[in-house]
Amino acid sequence: MKYRKSEYSSKVYRIPEMCFEDQRLSSFSGLVVIQAFFKRLELKKRLCGCFDHIHGDAIVGLHVVTLLLILHIIMGYRRLREIDRYKDDPVVHRVMGVRRVPDVSTVSRRLKLADAKSIDKLRTVNRELVLDPLVDMGLQRITIDFDGSVLSTSRFAEGTAVGFNKKKKGARSYYPLFCTISQTGQVLDMHHRPGNIHDSNGAQQFIASQIEHVRSVIPGARLESRLDSAFFSDEIVDMLNESRVQFTISVPFERFPDLKQMIESRKRWKKLDGRWSYFETDWSPDCWQQDYRFIFLRQKVKKQRKGPVQLDLFIPHEYGYEFKVIVTNKASSTGNVLRYHNGRGAQENIFGELKTQCQMDYVPVRWLSGNQLYLVSSVLAHNLMRTLQMQILTPRRRSTQNRACLWDFHEVRTMRQHMIQRAGRLTRPNGKLRLTMSGNEATKQMIQKYLDVLESAA
């Protein structure tokens, strides 16, 4: 339909008079979906069980604070002081089941009361929320990846230390170790550590515990894992092999000069494709008790031209090679092993979303237990948004060679913009509670679809 120009244009001269009143308005009407989802999971009851050993006469329990932090992150806020921006929102009150939101100072004081036992219980709840959907899906293969990520802070906080920090040199930081599920892109668990330790610190015990957790819930699934060179050791390799976990681990050259000599003396390389070539051998360092399959790979790369930059698109390139070695107990072809191992790079996307959209890199308080509680809340917010989408979306793919996510997930930022951050008004016509939103058809269909699925599954 064609409109006249006068039907589009409008002259505006006057700024309206401002008036701020309590009209039961909400900026986060889409949280009604989160309310239905939390109710189905009985999340508040689960969180309450994590702090039942902490006795006191406080009006605001730690489970309320934890639920508030999860909502705080889902809504897109970062600093604790930003709680003041939505503390009067009626939909937030209904999701939390409270008449008023705790003040910033109250939240900060309550975070100090968290202890190691409550953090362990929270981690258990997180594992349950991640593994329960996998049980219903009946997955035959589960890929668990391990890596650390630096969480920096510009101030002093208990448990932080100055360590390797590529982006913020000299800053104090934490360096937790994470276990992720590649099929769902969720964080199964985390091992909190200061920032001045090596990647492998406490890794063997943590990896063994995660294998045990997954096996106890899904005993029939085949487990596999991918790790970088920081985790290369005979203890971890033997432990994974004895646990019947298929693994690939990058091998560090600097610790084994024999590997360099084997590559330099090699004359014939088998061609994998136009970019990769390889050879294999059963080998182990002298101190090891058992030989394993070592795959030597070289990748054809363009050498950097030093000198003045020439603006000519047809300059010929000189090619060289980069090398890497992978140790594995997989019996599949070299190409499959390489593609599988390179797929672990998707874990960096999970860390990136956790830091930029779930505020994982924020250190809110000076106390270790409070910062650990905030970290678990960030992980829970990310995992819950993934689980919510798994209720609606159908898997787009089967298991791929690089173990990509089975779903095409929307980022938390997209879910926030499209569904959660929607204006609305709570009213009670004829005594019946009603949430009125704008008549946007796309938003209506999205929210109604989530509510219908959650109601039918309850």
* Total count of strands: 15
What is the helix tally? 14
Query: Roughly how much helix do the residues carry, as a percent range?
Result: 25-40%
Strand line-up across the major sheet: 7-6-2-8-9-13-12-11-10
SS content category: alpha+beta
- Arithmetic mean pLDDT: 90
Provide structural commentary.
With 458 residues, the protein is an alpha+beta fold. It has 14 helices and 15 strands. The protein has helices at residues 31-41, 43-49, 62-74, 90-96, 104-111, 116-137, 203-217, 234-242, 257-264, 334-342, 346-357, 368-392, 412-420, 441-457, and strands spanning 25-26, 141-148, 151-153, 161-162, 172-174, 177-181, 186-191, 222-227, 246-250, 270-271, 276-283, 292-302, 319-328, 424-427, 434-437. The strands form three sheets. Strands 7-6-2-8-9-13-12-11-10 form a nine-stranded mixed β-sheet, with helices on both faces. It has a three-stranded antiparallel β-sheet with strand order 1-14-15, with helices on one face. β6 (177-181) and β7 form a beta hairpin. α3 packs across α12 (368-392) and α6 (116-137) runs parallel beside α12. The longest helix is centred in the C-terminal third of the chain and has 25 residues, at 368-392. It is globular and about 85 Å long. It starts with 24 loop residues before the first strand and ends with a helix. The model has no long low-confidence stretch (mean pLDDT 90).
